[in-house]
Amino acid sequence: MTDYGHELRFGTFITPTADEPARPVALAQVAEQAGLDLVTFQDHPYQARFLDTWTLLSYVAARTERVELSANVVNLPLRPPAVLARSAAGLDLLTGGRVALGLGAGGFWDAIEAMGGRRLTPGESVDALVEAIRVIRELWAADERGGVRVDGDHYRVVGAKRGPAPAHPIPIWLGAYKPRMLRLVGRAADGWLPSLPYLPSRDALGELNPIIDDSATEAGRAPEEIRRLLNIGSQDADPESLAELALEYGVSTFILATDDPGTIRRFGAETAPAVRELVAAERRGRAQPRDGNPARRTPDEASAPEGTTELGLRPTPDSGVRVSDAMPWDESTRPTAVATRGAARYTNRGRAAGQHLIDVHDQLRAELRQIRDLVDQVRAGSVDVGSARSAISEMTMRQNNWTVGAYCASYCRVVAQHHTIEDQGIFPHLRARDDDLVPVLERLEQEHLVIHDVLESVDRALVDMVEHPGDYTRLQEAVDLLTDTLLSHLAYEERELVEPIARYGMYDGQL
Asked: Residue 449 CB: number of other CB atoms within 10 A?
């Protein structure tokens, strides 16, 4: 059993297809909206059907705000390490520290050679990777004195100036399977990034981890310094299975290979929370981890132990800024139950439920930004009306028909699957627990219907533009109204429901 105690992270592995160049960009945005942590693309510069991966990463970086970005993995024989180091540092600076660097020693040597690369033997490719890592790290070390000098058999740098330093320590992840590459991971990398389908079995992770650990120890490093990442397929994305991989084999980053937006959304909304809950529960139950030291505690657990009176959650406030001329409801008539509830003791699970509502709302806020961006693109002529309508129709806010029941359905499926609790809705549950919430819940339900109608008005305005091209007045009014109603509603809902969700949980049997 090997659990390195890392925080769990989840990401996607998207095909950089060139025949629909907007699609991988849109899928990256879906991943961010779904709450995933990482977006990656394969790098095969010799593949004419693919976009250039580094160009795509740069473009996606400009169209996203939060997710970490990486090649999975960079084809080193076709990307000189000195140039790659500056490219990665530059993109990291532009994104505020959102870049990781997955590296591979190379494969498909016929195709590499056809593109002008030099064919290497397996041993030579590992030697070249060792030299490349040294070049990259030396160039990033902008505070060191003197130029960079690496006189290798495959890469030579003779006095190159250092820098720029990246915005954060860019992690280097290696795709590795053979012992020599695994030992390199232990000595010089920040992460190990294999693909589950390429391993002979899941148990192989348990056989290969010790090679990395022993090499790290010999190099004076702690094995826990090295994150274990794993590319998986949709057939592997069962929460119980992923939790086992985390607890038994130390995998802490799961990267799902899929180009289906619905699968990406489910991975973020259902699978990731379920895996986190299972792993957190198991870790809490362990008195001693594998190294014999006191069990690691997450920052939330350390600052807010089970059964404290500290809520520790911050609902998103309403900024009060309005961009439309009218609102479909009077905000001053909203009922409130905030001041009527007395003191309570909150469990970690209850706080997690309250935080999950905030996280789902953050996804909806991100989709709102995407809608506004789509409208700007329509006005600029870079996106046609049909494409904008298609993109909006795939969004969570549209599919969920604007009910918190959608949040509940997702969350409750997780709870039911892993805690054997009957599937119920959040509103009926809260009604049964707190009479003071009834007026609030009724008002929220009314606002859900209004917001859905406002969203429909955006779609109708797009349709009208086909008949009246160039007239953006109605479309802008609809989007501005959606902005005001959505942000106002989400802030109100969090103000009223985050605390009772944390207090009462999702079900009577949960707490």
From this structure: 12
Contact 152, 160 (CB under 8 A): no
Task: Give the tokens for residue 119.
Answer: 């064919």
Residue 205's φ and ψ, nearest 5 degrees, are: -60, -40
What tokens does 504 get?
């009462």
The pLDDT value recorded for residue 426 is: 67
95-128 confidence digits (pLDDT tens): 999 999 999 999 899 999 999 999 999 999 999 9
Tell me the H-state helices in 339-437. Answer: 348-380, 385-393, 396-399, 404-419, 426-433
Name the residue among 196, 225, 203, 231 with its Cα closest to residue 213: 225
Phi and psi angles of residue 193, each rounded to the nearest 5 degrees, phi first: -130, 80
* C-alpha dist (Å) from residue 263 to 13, 62, 105, 197, 291: 12, 24, 31, 19, 37
Q: Tokens at residue 98, please?
A: 């959102």
Neighbours of 198 (CB within 10 A): 10
Counting Cβ atoms within 10 Å, is residue 52 exposed (0-12), middle (13-18) or buried (19+)? middle
**Percent over 90 (pLDDT), the chain:** 59
The 3-class SS string of 109-162 reads: HHHHHHCCCCCCCHHHHHHHHHHHHHHHHHHHCCCCCCCEEEECCCCEEEEECC
The pair of structure tokens assigned to 145 is 């004195």
Between the two ends of the chain, the Cα-to-Cα distance in Å is: 29
Higher pLDDT, 415 or 156: 156
Q: CA-to-CA distance for 386 and 399, rounded, in angstroms?
A: 18
The rounded distance, in Å, linking the Cα atoms of 421 and 412 is 8
Task: Share the mean pLDDT of the chain.
Answer: 86
> b or e along 322-355 (b: 16 or more beta carbons within 10 Å of the residue's beta carbon)?
bebeeeeeeeeebeebeeeeeeeebbbbbbbbbb
| 64 and 27 Cβ atoms separated by less than 8 Å | no
Coil/strand/helix, residue 228:
strand
Residue 210 host element (H or E) = helix 204-218
Residue 456's CB: how many other CB atoms inside 10 A? 12
pLDDT band at 342, cuts 50/70/90? low
Prediction pTM value: 0.62
CA dihedral 470, 471, 476, 478 (to 10 degrees): -130
Is pLDDT at 248 greater than 80 in this prediction? yes
Q: Region 220-235: what's the mean pLDDT?
A: 95
Choice between 280 and 288, residue whose per-residue pLDDT is larger? 280
Counts for the chain of helices (H) and strands (E), in that order: 18, 11
Q: 220: helix, coil or strand?
A: coil
What's the residue count for the chain?
511
State the helix-helix crossing angle for 404-419 and 239-249, rounded to 10 degrees: 60
